[in-house]
Amino acid sequence: MSALLEVDGIETHYGASQALFGLSFDVRSSEVVTLIGRNGMGKSTTVKTVMGMLAPRKGSVHIGGADITGQPAHRVARTGIGLVPEGRRIFPNLTVRENLVATAENRRGRQPPWTLQRVYDMFPRLEERERNLGCNLSGGEQQMLAIGRALMTNPTLLILDEATEGLAPLVRSEIWNCLARLKAEGLSLIVIDKNIAPLLRLADRHFIVEKGRVVWQGRSEELRAQPELLREYVGM
Prior knowledge:
The chain is built from 10 helices and 12 strands. The chain is α/β, with parallel strands linked by helices. The mean pLDDT is 92.
């Protein structure tokens, strides 16, 4: 199966400090993959490089066969990649509804498209808080809004960076259920999260990142069979 996203040998720096060292991975259509590893190993830097927030000095990024290496973030977003960033970054002075419609588009003619009502059906709490400002939402509600906002761009690939970090267990469960529904609908996902058990249930393939490199890749059943990998690279 051909890849939807291909990241090949990227080397990314912060000034003189190198963060990624020839990192490669791919995502196929309708597939869920994870980037797993301890903090500071390069997972978020990888996301920023894919999204055009950082330009790699070497390597390439392709989406749907198109080369987007080093393209600015707004152009990358138009290729069909949606991002739920670490820290949510919703617009605090806009209402829930305004946050959602601010990013709404359907350039690729997705059917059925993500609309306000579809997002509200996924997260009924957002409809209840429709007129509330983003700054007045709980952390869980803000995370739901960040996911809904990304879905309103009607992406072909959705990236979630620490989507359940700092959330109460019931809210985390709601987010995992949402991701399972998105997978069932055939949306390709990249998920970064510290909660390994739900990642193993959700994802098709996993990439372990250590010091800016992919040091292991495989399917959930393979990772379950090698618990020493999680002890070594995640600290579990």
